[in-house]
Amino acid sequence: MLEAELRANFEQVWEKIEKACFRAGRKVEEIKILGASKKQPPEKIRILYNFGIKIFGENYVQEAEKKQKALSDLPIEWHFIGRLQRNKVKKAIELFHLIESLDRLELALELEKRLAEKQRKISLYIEVNIGYEPTKGGVNPDELIPFVENLLEFKHLEIKGLMALPPYKERAEEVRPYFIRMRKLFEKVKAFMGETFSELSMGTSSDFEIAIEEGANLIRLGTILFGKRE
Ligand SMILES: *Cc1c(COP(=O)(O)O)cnc(C)c1O
Q1: Bridge partners of residue 221, in order along the sequence
Q2: Which of 40, 56, 204 for a ligand 1 pocket mutation test, highest count of atoms within 8 Å of Cβ?
Q3: In CATH, which superfamily holds the domain spanning 2-226?
Q4: pLDDT-above-70 percentage for the chain
Q5: Ligand 1 mean position to 61 CA, how many Å?
Q6: Which terminal CB of the chain, N or C, has fewer other CB atoms within 10 Å?
Q7: Domain definitions of the chain by residue range
């Protein structure tokens, strides 16, 4: 049965989170789980919501719109975690509470313009391309501080944290140095931005325990919670 299957996944994940927190001397309350629900059906999101996961992340605007309709009775906090195209910005700010993948000035400009028209603000994280991978989005680590400085003039963008998806490694332990670098960048930006800058989103199914040990407070879990994507 679907619910039993998802419950087993959830309990297994929860136990791993508790153990990682214990090793790191952290409290489990510091960790938020985001269900990475791309290519997963609304029924599974609903079940996981009932287990206590309140944040879900989608990668595609159109796919998210359909699912959100089917789940409109639930007060889910929706994050956008994919590559955001400029022509999808208008729709994205209607559908999402937070955008985790701000990765270029062109996108910031479009967001600012659309939000100013509506006289509203949105919370964002800056995506960092921590592995300098040409195929991935994100600001290069050495360009992060100037990028943040540029964003200060955009009055409708509330920059709350950083997000990263490090290179995939067969052995999860090899991802640790990237998480350590992210934590250092996070502290550096925080010293500059102040207390409202508080979120570090990193860690997926294959490496979330290490991400927790290195300071993540939001982990983004797909397959380990939901099972295989459709
Ligand atoms: C799909 C996705 C995840 C989750 O990946 P899993 O390996 O399924 O846990 C996390 N972050 C982003 C940005 C994703 O696109």
Answers
A1: 35
A2: 204
A3: Alanine racemase (3.20.20.10)
A4: 100
A5: 16
A6: N
A7: 2-226
